[in-house]
TrEMBL record:
Keywords: Lyase. GO terms for molecular function: enoyl-CoA hydratase activity. Belongs to the enoyl-CoA hydratase/isomerase family. The keyword Nucleus does not apply. InterPro entries: ClpP/crotonase-like_dom_sf (IPR029045), Enoyl-CoA_hyd/isom_CS (IPR018376), Enoyl-CoA_hydra/iso (IPR001753), Enoyl-CoA_hydra_C (IPR014748). One of its GO terms (cellular component) is mitochondrion. CDD domains: crotonase-like (cd06558). This is ECHD2 protein. One of its GO terms (biological process) is fatty acid beta-oxidation. It comes from Chionis minor. Pfam families: ECH_1. It comes from the Eukaryota.
Length: 222
């Protein structure tokens, strides 16, 4: 996906009705020794980092349970859509653990330190409406009879992104992600570097031409 230039948006959904991702299999985990657990969690953390580093926008469609590593997967995405009936939580402390695949870092960046600490310390599960109210998800929708309401909303959101200039969207994502980790002056410099890469693109010229000619732009990602 990282190197496929035809890919403009990635939507993560589950093929299991009622479950987005239930997290690690604790029965499997119980059979591992300490070293194996450490290696397993490191691989999970690396996977979430790879998802977060995808250059195109990513959307998690949460139509059911997103618990532990399942919520960490959703947090690694840029945008999240949830059914109002979905259940989410970093429940690791209820099992003698702590989030180990990015949850302690991505949740506070998403909802703020105070709420993140409360959710992690208590291991509480929240529904889609609560998640929306605290900014954990971008949109919440009533579940439908097919159990894929969040996925359908995620597709609608993806279709809003698709017509936009692909390289500009990628640079926007890069500027936001890198800029959020530094002070604002450094962030401005990052934005400037990303903008400079976008200036010579054919899509920028097409955007200007389409505006002058009062027609929809036809972006090609170049």
């Amino acid at each position: 996906l990282r190197f496929d230039e035809k890919v403009r948006v990635v939507v993560f959904k589950s093929e299991v009705k009622g479950v987005f991702c239930a997290g690690a299999d604790l029965k499997e985990r119980a059979k591992m020794d300490d070293a194996e657990v450490g290696h397993f969690v490191k691989r999970l953390r690396n996977l979430m980092d790879e998802i977060a580093a995808l250059p195109v926008p990513t959307i998690a469609a949460i139509d059911g349970y997103a618990l532990g590593g399942g919520l960490e997967l959703a947090l690694a995405c840029d945008l999240r859509v949830a059914a109002s009936s979905a259940k989410m939580g970093l429940i690791e402390t209820t099992r003698g653990l702590l989030p180990g695949a990015g949850g302690t870092q991505r949740l506070p960046r998403c909802v703020g330190i105070g709420l993140a600490k409360e959710l992690i310390f208590t291991g509480r599960q929240i529904d889609g409406q609560e998640a929306f109210s605290m900014g954990l998800v971008n949109h919440t929708v009533p579940q439908n009879s097919d159990g894929d309401a969040a996925y359908q909303r995620a597709l609608t959101l993806a279709k809003e992104i698709l017509p936009q200039a692909p390289f500009a969207v990628k640079m926007g994502k890069l500027a936001i992600n890198r800029g959020m980790e530094v002070d604002i002056a450094s962030g401005m410099a990052i934005e400037g570097m990303c903008y400079a890469q976008n200036i010579p693109t054919r899509d920028r010229q097409e955007g200007m031409a389409a505006f002058r000619e009062k027609r929809p732009p036809q972006f090609i990602g170049k």
